[in-house]
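Request: Show me your protein:
***
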Amino acid sequence: MTVNRRHFLGASGVALAALGLAGRAGAQNGPLDAVKIVTGFPPGGTSDTLCRRVAENLRGSAFTKSALVENKPGAGGQIAVQSMKGAPTDGSVLLQTPASMLMIYPHIYKNLAYNAFTDVTAVTLGCTFDFGFCVGPAVPDSIKDIPAFLAWCKANPEKANYGSPGAGAVPHFIGVLLGKAGGVELKHVAYRGSAPAVQDMVAGQIQAVSAPVGEFIQQVNAGKARFLGVSGAQRSRFAPNVPTFAEQGYKDLVFSEWFGFFAPGGTPAPVVQRANTALRTALEQKDVIDGLAVMGLEATSSTPDQLAVLLKQSYDRWGPIVKEIGFTADS
């Protein structure tokens, strides 16, 4: 699956040139002895799962003899990104990170310990996903969509709550923007990840949760939660009967996020192209595609240039949104 299937193509001419370079660069050197993929999140989550699926397919390839995953959790993924500063630029160390660490964090942290554009080098997208907004038993069964939920919250302000996987990331801001669009203040409750937020929602401890679509599928299928909307430009294939926010009248609330693979800043272009070729091959394998789909993730790849353009576009889009919301990491 390639990036154009997720509507991320930005410069097809550059993309074709980059693909040609990838083919030539891939034959320059023999395989590395080992490649380490760093993720800023603990084992078992979506980021870790993507890394391990890819690592399994890199082992014994023309790129590397072995591949392992190193978990560097902490500071909402910042520690892993920061670890790229000074890391070897021979392709032996790669970072896999959600977009928020690079497109949003620079806008909300006054003293971020890394530069999203100079301390890492784009290699390829890894996957894309949409967000869902779900409610549990604390919200009446009669509430079937976002407008009805916002009207109910306005009538019951003491119950106008929602949780998210953490403050300062896309799911948090989706709730803020939905509230603004509906003229109601939704009180945000930050959790340490999606799982505890969803658990509290199905237990009736919190009214709603904003999180990646895949985090809700099991509970929705079990009848313990219900989707009110999804954030993508189109309906999610993982929840095809759920209307998008845009379909429900919130035209500006179209958000998808991505996980990307990066090399340390200053990595030579031939090394980046070799890594790109290897990672794209891994991401096209059926076991990777199917394994990610179970978690509501679309395996997706790109050229380095496409990812670099996407990062800049995402960064530029979120600057005004964060300013409008008025959120900082200290607030």
Observations:
- The longest strand covers residues 120-135.
- The chain has twelve helices and ten strands.
